[in-house]
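Consider today's protein:

***
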Amino acid sequence: MSEPLAKFGKDCVIQNGCVIGFKYHETCGPSLIGASARIRTGTIIYGDVSIGDHFQSGHNALVRENTRIGDHVVIGTNSIIDGNTEIGDFVKIESNCYIPTHVKIGSRVFFGPNVTLTNDKYPLKLRDKYKPDGPVIEDGVTLGAGVVVLPGICIGADSMISAGAVVTHDIPPKSLVTGIPGRVAPLPSHLCERNMALSWKKYIND
C-alpha cells in the first residue's frame, strides 16, 4: 500500500497516530481537509473525503470514502462515518455514533452519544433486491443519546428526538419524538429556537 494522500488548509493540527488520506483503492484521490482542523490521535480519514474548515475529531474516529463534510463539524471519539455520506455545516456528532452509507445530514444538527442510523431494512435477507437506503436528517434536528433511526426515514427540520427513541417512520418538521416506537407530538414552544452551540455564535448571526 502506498503512502496516504492528503491536502490541508492553514493552521491544522494533526496529532500523532492519525491516518489522513488512507488509500483504500489504487485509483482513489486524496482527502481534502480545510483550515483550522483539529484531528486527534487514532483518527482515520479515507481518500476521496472532503472536509470543510474548523473540523474536529475525537480519538479513533473513522471517516470512510466519498464523504462530504461542511464547516464547523465535530466527529466524536469512536464514531464511524461509513462513507457515501453528506454532512452539512455546524454539526456535532458525539462519541460512539454509527452513520452507515447513503445518509444525508443537514446543518445545525446534533447527535448525542451512541446514536445509530441504519440503512438495511432486512439484514442479510433479499440480497438480490438490496439497496442501501440511509436516513435523511434535515436541518436543525437534535437526536438524543441512544436514538436509533431505521432505514429510509426522513426526520423533518428542527425536530427533537428524545434519548432512547426508536424512529420507525418519517417525522414532520418541528416534532418531538419520545419512546419505542417513537410517539410524535408538536415540538413545545420553548424548544422551537434553532440549534446553536456557544462556539458557533461568532460565525452565525441569527
Summary: The two ends are 47 Å apart (CA to CA).
